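Bug #77: duplicate submission created two jobs. Keeping one. Sequence:
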Amino acid sequence: MIDMYSKDVLITGSNGFIGNNLMKYNKNFNFYCLTKENIDKNFVLFNNENIQIESLKDKEFVLLHLATFFSKKNNENNLVKSGNIEYGKKVIEKTCNLNINKIIFTNSMYKFYKEAQIKKLEYTKSKNLLNEYFQKFCRDSGIHYEEILLDNTYGKNDKRKKVLPEIVSAVLNNKGNPVKNKNANINLMHVEDVISRLKIALSENTSDKSAFISDKSVNINSIFLFLDSKIKKNNLVNLEYTENNYDNKSFRIDQKGINLNSLENGLESLLKL
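Kept job's structure:
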């Protein structure tokens, strides 16, 4: 059941790629931003003003936890643990006296990758440990919990150090192909579609666990060739799609009936500055 009234949302990661895009859609949501800077001072940021967390006890919230710390470097494992597990626990510690009726957590599909080195990353482990913590907290508190599994997301103005922004930059600046592993595939979901999925989760008073990913993956090298042919306006190179190749299928894909952006159109839009 979807409630159409304006909802109050406690959000972490509002300055990130997904969070920043979501904040633009505030017609039906009042976003109270928890940041690492203000949470220790017991503040949330609302309409560019700091508000004491304790003053919000008369409101009913959904907590959306988007904040994450990503790194594959072994010498940053402690930062990953702190940025994911400890920060997530601190968010609960600081807000547990508020009236929260649902927590939404965006987890990573990394735990379903076939590559052992991906599964063993501190990032993968920390996200899963935080998921277990949220699950227990919600179960003990009798509130709804929704875990949304995401893989790679993309869209305009993506400043993250990821392969797709690197490819787009190379194409726009007439540089060589930056793709090292020509056989690698990637599952991509446009950020606009992710926002549509999050808006549904924020509006539904239900518990759920599902993956919001594309039905197929695409060869990364074909992305470069496709975009390069678009820029040079020569013979168009088609994207090469392949079946998703996760380690197991112990997850459920649910696209919630969203009319997804086509990958061709989504990628081409990245070339329009």
